[in-house]
Write a structure and sequence with these properties.
The protein has one domain (23-127): Aspartate Aminotransferase, domain 1 (Alpha-Beta Complex). The protein is 55% helix and 18% strand. By secondary structure, it is α+β, with helices and mostly antiparallel strands. A hairpin with a 2-residue loop joins strand 1 (51-56) and strand 2 (59-66). The longest helix is centred in the first third of the chain and has 23 residues, at 24-46. Strands 1, 2, 3, 4 and 5 form a 5-stranded antiparallel beta sheet that branches. The chain has helices at 6-21, 24-46, 72-84, 109-127; strands at 51-56, 59-66, 69-70, 90-92, 98-101.
């Protein structure tokens, strides 16, 4: 921590022990690759001109376009809809057309499947 406060240092050490014990760093890489594969499938279905997925580990993003231009209105619509369904996304980027997807390190394949189904439906509806 900034001041080396004993309680803050203790919390940091406990967090590091938990990361190591549950192998969350390697799990992040594995689950992130699975998640990115699912986002690529979704992008292929919707069209690469509309959405471009990217990510590293469990820090993922989906950049949205409409007729070649940043689709900030669609990003906001999808963000609000998924929030109502229990998923937190953040629109990012200069025109706010990038959906930032940062699930917890403990996310499961079942959660990823549920999310990508909801995201796919929200995107299809928003682009309709």
């Amino acid at each position: 921590t900034f001041l080396g406060h004993p309680v803050g240092c203790s919390m940091a050490l406990a967090s590091l022990r938990e990361l190591e014990a549950k192998k969350l760093v390697s799990r992040s890489a594995e689950m992130g690759e699975h998640f990115l594969t699912e986002l690529r499938r979704l992008a292929k279905r919707l069209g690469q001109a509309r959405c471009r997925p990217r990510g590293l580990g469990l820090m993922l993003a989906l950049e949205l376009f409409d007729e070649g231009k940043p689709a900030e209105a669609i990003a906001l619509t999808v963000t609000k809809r998924l929030l109502a369904e229990g998923f937190i996304l953040l629109p990012e980027g200069e025109p706010a057309n990038i959906l930032s997807i940062t699930p917890p390190l403990t996310v499961s394949k079942t959660h990823i499947a549920r999310f990508t189904r909801a995201l796919g439906q929200a995107l299809e509806d928003a682009y309709a």
